[in-house]
Amino acid sequence: MATKERKNGSTTTTFRMTPPEREAVRTAAASHDMGVSSFARVSTVRAAHLTPTSPPRRDELGRVLGPVLGELGRIGSNVNQIARIANSTGNASAIASAGRLRADLERLTVAVLALKEGSSG
Fold it and tell me: What is the crossing angle of helices 19-31 and 36-47, to 10°?
């Protein structure tokens, strides 16, 4: 398990799951109206015989925008792979197209983040 301390004194812990385990956790989290991370944290803390603190509940916009941001990140990873191949082959047209796609994704991500921040204020 990898752990990283955050500014507020909490830490982030990463662990591996098989795809069926991940899907079961996602389904269980959804049935409790929680995100996967919150569900995993609460379940783990309870298994350690502690009382979990309540995480802040996401509003409806946050529930919608979270997956959108995740999908934008996955698309960005694909664009980076395309750009790497374009650069390795020296295809100038593909390199330029990948650059435009990156810029478009960045604008979309910034716009989604602005919506999310605007809803919490």
Answer: 90
Residue 36 pLDDT > 60: yes
Please give the span between the terminal C-alpha atoms of the chain, in angstroms, as a whole number.
35
Cβ atoms of 83 and 91 closer than 8 Å: no
pTM of the model: 0.48
Average pLDDT of span 74-87: 91
Quickly list DSSP for the chain.
-EEEE-TTS-EEEE----HHHHHHHHHHHHHTT--HHHHHHHHHHHHTT-PPPPPPPP-HHHHHHHHHHHHHHHHHHHHHHHHHHHHHHT-HHHHHHHHHHHHHHHHHHHHHHHHHHHHT-
